[in-house]
Amino acid sequence: MIRPTTGLPDPAPRRSLVATWLAVAVAGVSLLCAFAAWSAASPARTEAAARLLDRDDAFAEYHLLRLDEIVQFRFIDLAIAYLAVAILFAALAVAVRIGPRWSVVLTGTLSAAGALIIGAVVFARLLTGVPTLAGWSQEDLVPLLTEVTPAWFVTAEQLPLLATFTGLPIILALLAVGRFRSQTHRPDGPELGW
After folding, report:
1. Taken in order 87, 116, 99, 93, is the CA torsion positive or negative?
2. Which of 19, 50, 131, 162 lies at a 20 to 30 A Cα distance from 103?
């Protein structure tokens, strides 16, 4: 790629800086919420376990085993998913700023696919609640765990999805506009990048 004003090599494509910072912002929000989900897991599990032991019923040990599975599903798996989203959007930010076109397409596609998968899982969870799998006692444990979970966790659980589903279309639109401008302004000259 040649810089049109000086004729010197210009290896970095001039894509939207706003798109780069938006991808960085989505990655940052996802990383922060992944840390929040991971850090909320232990206190919620400890408080729920203490309440189960205080009830002193015959099924306390059984419920404690099921509680570990629900905490894994509700907190740890969510933190891993949001960490993956953060990594994808950080890669997208790097690709948008300095990467070749194929890397932008690849990371954009992976980011969209990851967002859709996580969105589908979270949407299904909102519709049906935490699924009753492997004999989980949903009637007892899920409300108890919800009660002891910090109130801010609901925001941390939904914020990355809002950021992703708002930010990704804007990033793609900014890249498309930049691509269109680079083709219309210099149709016969050197490509300015997008």
Report:
1. negative
2. 162
